[in-house]
Amino acid sequence: MSFQAYLDNAEKQTGITPRAFVDLAAGKNLTKHGEIITWLKTDHGLGHGHATAIARLITKGPEFVAQNHTDGVLHLDGLAART
């Protein structure tokens, strides 16, 4: 599964866009990978793979993820923004 697919599927499961997850984590002052994964699993019901992808997005930032995981293309504003 591609990195973008993990983000898209997490949005389908929760109704929360990747960008909104980044903002929510910032609002909660979550910065550590492990604490972000616990939050995503506990509060949002995500599985480990989806939580890990979002945690990487939050901790490393969109630019790093786009460069290293998605060949430079990363969609953070949700599925509806692409239709």
Automatic annotation (TrEMBL):
Source organism superkingdom: Bacteria
InterPro entries: DUF4287 (IPR025629)
Pfam families xref list: DUF4287
Protein name: DUF4287 domain-containing protein
Organism in which the protein naturally occurs: Amycolatopsis iheyensis
